Amino acid sequence: MLILLPPSEGKVAPRRGKPLDLTTLGSPELTAARERVLDALVELCEGDPDVAATTLGVPKTQLDLVRLNADARRTPTARGDQVYRGVVYEALDFATLSTAGKRRATGRVAVTSSLFGLVRPSDRIPAYRLSGDASLPGLGGVAAHWRAHLGAAVTAALGTGLLVDLRSGTYAAFWRPAPELARRVATVRVLHEVDGRRQVVSHFNKATKGRIVRALLEDGRDPRTPARLAEVLRDLGWVVEVGEPTPQGTQLDVVVAQL
């Protein structure tokens, strides 16, 4: 099983650690593609900070984020599961997983990253700011860049297992599974039901997805189909409805009454 997560906009800047070494990251076939994005981002942010902020959609009151990017090759790194923060990651809470859960996370979780393509929990990375809809001078849109490079890396990471795709729409555009993988692809949508009415609530959608990943890592089972994943989630206490298979995979709706 491979669980694909979106990144978090907020990140914790490591205070100590070795500088970035792209050759140590997982999916080494992405090293050259990572270098191109990193070069374009650093070059932009080493120039006029106001221009960089405008290009990246960073508020002019947060120019420290531009400097963070400019220094990305020199600043300390830490494990990805310590750098990413936000609602999904707070609910998942890598740090308090059991020993077995942490071991499974290393092999089963990957974060879709605008800067690095894929990041494993154990990959050492710096804090950075680069949104999935950004466009960089000399590179173009980062989503288009990764669409040209991520396919082989994700397919290799997936192997013969089930893909549990929890990415948001922005990061789903980085790579879409080929139709031949559809029977092994499950996307998850969280619906809040009140008085018979259902809606997606962004904050709690993210929190529930984090709890789902945590539960799967602690449970340890390795479902191979969307239907089997639904059974596991029901065993773990969720109400799950399985959609019809499509050329993109099968959607599972997790319905929650309390947030």
Characterization of the model:
The protein has helices at 31-46, 49-56, 64-70, 80-83, 87-92, 99-108, 142-147, 150-158, 169-172, 202-219, 226-235, and strands spanning 2-5, 78-79, 109-113, 117-119, 124-125, 135-136, 140-141, 163-165, 185-194, 197-199, 239-242, 250-256. The relative contact order is 0.17. With 259 residues, the protein is an alpha/beta fold. The chain is built from eleven helices and twelve strands. Helix 1 crosses helix 3 and helix 6 packs across helix 10 (202-219). Strands 1, 3, 4, 8, 9, 10, 11 and 12 form an eight-stranded mixed beta sheet that branches. It has a two-stranded antiparallel ribbon with strand order 2-5. The model has no long low-confidence stretch (mean pLDDT 95). Helices cover 38% and strands 18% of the residues. The chain is globular.
Characteristic terms for this protein:
259 residues; alpha/beta; two-stranded antiparallel sheet; globular
Shape: globular
Q: Provide the β-strand percentage band.
A: 15-25%
Annotation field: number of helices: 11
Helical fraction: 25-40%
> Can you tell me the residue ranges where pLDDT is under 50 for at least 5 consecutive residues?
none
The major pleated sheet works out as: 8 strands, mixed
- What's the alpha carbon Rg, rounded to whole Å? 18 Å
- The tally of strands reads 12
Indicate the mean pLDDT. 95
| Computed structural class | alpha/beta
Sequence of secondary-structure elements: EHHHEHHHEEEEEHHEHEEHHEE
For the terminal residues, how far apart are their CA atoms? 27 Å
